[in-house]
Amino acid sequence: MNDQELLARRFEEHRSHLRAVAYRMLGSVGEAEDAVQETWLKLSRSDAEAVENLGGWLTTVTGRVCLDVLRSRNTRREDPLHDGEGRIRIPDPIVGRADGLDPEQQTLLADSVGLALMVVLDTLSPAERLAFVLHDMFAVPFDEIAPVLGRSAATTRQLASRARRRVQGAEPAPDTDRGRLRTVVDAFLAAARGGDFEALLAVLDPEVVARSDGGTLLPGMLRRGAAEVASQAIAFARFAEAAYPVLVNGLPGVVSRSQGRPLSVMAFTVRDGRITALDILTDPERLARLDLTAADA
């Protein structure tokens, strides 16, 4: 085995970790894969023998690659619910079987990064997101993050603190017990299928927010409040009729299909036994790119 092959083997030992970092930074599975590949290219062109802590080096390089991607996007979403053209934008969901994630998905979602949290991460500036993700999610010291940002360690700490306050304020900790969450999701689906408005109100938080991302081909949707969301759920009962249970970013959700083609992926955020957020991906182009094989197994 030559030096390059040995280096590639060492890199593969860190690939899953780097994908997890990049996914939290970018909210896109495809872009995360590209960022990891770019990290490999940088490693293959560097003096790897001089790197004392390869894992730490790779993590910060992946962070820098992701930071460049975020900065180069045409527009940053100031509104957490919309892209630069006003369309609803939902990050890529990670969909797995209802009875558990496969090992690769478990690594990618080690901290149970729900889709609602990914939406909130999209509201952060690139620098805030990097400081928060690397420090709070992956325990990278501030003095290692600071050079990536070109800031002092103290300033980097302030960025992470500001991001933490925004994340905690926008998305208080949801319920994570899968059994209880599945009961709530099943109650929602049963009520939607039966057109039971009162039953829907009982399972929805009064301030619930429903977001639907239809991409460029279909209009997105934003609904607020239990009554409006319940009415919309009844209007689109066909999605509930065709739904089967999955895990979406590690938490109970559903996929709807028609004639073998995916219609939607629905993620639920539940707090105190009521649904506080519904994130629904209906974009046919992005649905076609999703890997649903694990969920269908």
Account of the protein in words:
The structure is a single chain. About 2% of the residues have low confidence. The chain folds into two domains: 124 residues, Butyryl-CoA Dehydrogenase, subunit A, domain 3 (Up-down Bundle); 119 residues, Nuclear Transport Factor 2, Chain: A, CATH 3.10.450. The relative contact order is 0.13. By secondary structure, the protein is of the alpha+beta class. α4 runs parallel beside α8 and α10 packs antiparallel against α11. The protein contains 15 helices and seven strands. 53% of the residues lie in helices and 17% in strands. The radius of gyration is 20 Å and the shape is globular.
